[in-house]
């Protein structure tokens, strides 16, 4: 389990996050949603220890501030929004970087199958024939999937020595077409179903509704709420957070949510407008 | 250019480690040949083969041959190997650290900083307390060059890198400023130097391997060997750093500590190389770049191959410098700059996109 308590992040004088409490369970896909500039990515960066924060982040029972980089690398992989590379690495060479992560620790722990390989990881993200291509020559969406393959390789088994491992994904589908969006979401979902934990910053509420089983809604640096999709994806909560009129539709036969639909396009986008 | 890159399309699997191993073997062979050639070539008529055959048949080697081969050429060959390897590895590490193929100790002012350290040590060394001079002895100049190189690398990194991103323009401009500042202080040092020190300075700043003696090799070798020994351990970290600092951290690399070690390594290698050979430019930029074209940027192979190819390149440049206008000698810095200057411009053209960052 990951639990963050009383997380506050400031950049200089600007306070980005205000006393946020956030939890995520292994075996679940936890989505962080909210409008642009609400602090979603900042929360993610606090949870991964990338930005200085006050408060506590406990991952699998240990404060992340007290762990060495390689100890954390064994437990979790982090997918950034976009990654530019300084040198002309091939796709294989990039993905292989995930293979060595936390190397010594995972070798010592035993029970670690070494059968995982770069081609398998590439196959998983739908980049089977890309092994020999130069990373820099790929499209943005392809690069993002290469990075996902690297991160997947890092935490290939969702559970290692009875300890769940974690995927942190910062807008994993932002530059993908609809087919690959579904592929990537399914990979994350499978990881969670196999016992790992997934925490993803999401923009697309429809995809979130389809794949997440826990949602944290961030609004203006505050946690507006966290819980099951049915509790968070409501007309009122979303309309308040996104400052526009939104209506959540449910489709009874499939049991999934389909949203959002602007109630009326003309009247949208004005904070506090009558709904 | 296009032809050059097209010839090196990575293998189907994108795994170039096999090819990198082959290249390593090949370069080792070339290095051995270059060493022997440099022992054999020279303005004097001393013959390596005659000396060897004399040795094999139990005859005495003539005193002249012994002096030329053992006291003049041998330390020079060793020095060329060490200095070339150190400069090339420094370049490779700096480029990895700054995440930019244009970083080079000579271009961004690290060599100038190391040179300043060496000059200060030569001119002001006499003012140091006797305790220090007694203990450090001949090591004072390389040690001071190391400190100068370390200070300038650190300063450069602080100035040019913010939040793990290096601005290329800032890096190059800060390098110019550092070089100018080092040059100015060096000028002051030369101004206040006495005659004996001026003589030392002049010999030192000629920047060639001509002055190589066994004692010079022995005083500078420890720092260079230490740096060369440490460098392979930086390979995995430098590979990770190519993803950016945050991502490197997430795959288990202690980024801050690794950066400190990398900066120290660059300073040690550059400092010691500059202390014995003056400023020999462009080795650190040409060698790693050629290797990246051939076998890719994986530092696991890049650093070791850079050391070998750096040594080869300096041996070849040294041989040219001794032969081209024999019996006189052309300073080796002129040879490396003649090759390296246009090469640097070529990289600039290829990297124009990067510079706009």
Describe what this molecule looks like in 3D.
- The complex is a heterodimer of chains A (275) and B (357).
- With 275 residues, chain A is of the alpha/beta class.
- Chain A has two domains: 2-233, Rossmann fold, CATH 3.40.50; 234-275, no CATH class.
- In chain A, 32% of the residues lie in helices and 28% in strands.
- Chain A contains ten helices and 14 strands.
- In chain A, strands 6-9-10-3-11-12 form a six-stranded mixed sheet, sandwiched between helices.
- Chain A is globular and about 50 Å long.
- Mean pLDDT of chain A is 86; it is low at 104-115 and 264-275.
- Chain B is an all-alpha fold and 357 residues long.
- Chain B has one domain (2-9, 17-338): ABC transporter involved in vitamin B12 uptake, BtuC (Orthogonal Bundle), CATH 1.10.3470.10.
- Chain B contains 17 helices and two strands.
- Chain B has helices spanning 2-6, 17-40, 48-56, 63-97, 110-124, 130-136, 140-160, 168-192, 195-205, 214-230, 235-241, 245-250, 255-277, 283-295, 299-323, 332-350, 352-355; strands at 161-162, 165-166.
- In chain B, strands 1-2 form a two-stranded antiparallel sheet.
- In chain B, helix 4 (63-97) packs across helix 14 (283-295).
- The longest helix of chain B is centred in the N-terminal third of the chain and has 35 residues, at 63-97.
- Chain B is globular.
- Chain B starts with a helix and ends with a helix.
- The A-B interface holds A 45, 48-50, 68-70, 72-74, 76-78, 80, 83-94, 97-98, 100-103, 105, 119, 131-134, 154 and B 9-16, 96, 99-101, 236, 239-240, 242-244, 246-247, 249-255, 292, 296-298.
Features:
heterodimer, A: 275 residues, alpha/beta, 2 domains, six-stranded mixed β-sheet, four-stranded antiparallel β-sheet, B: 357 residues, mainly alpha, ABC transporter involved in vitamin B12 uptake, BtuC, two-stranded antiparallel ribbon, 2 strands
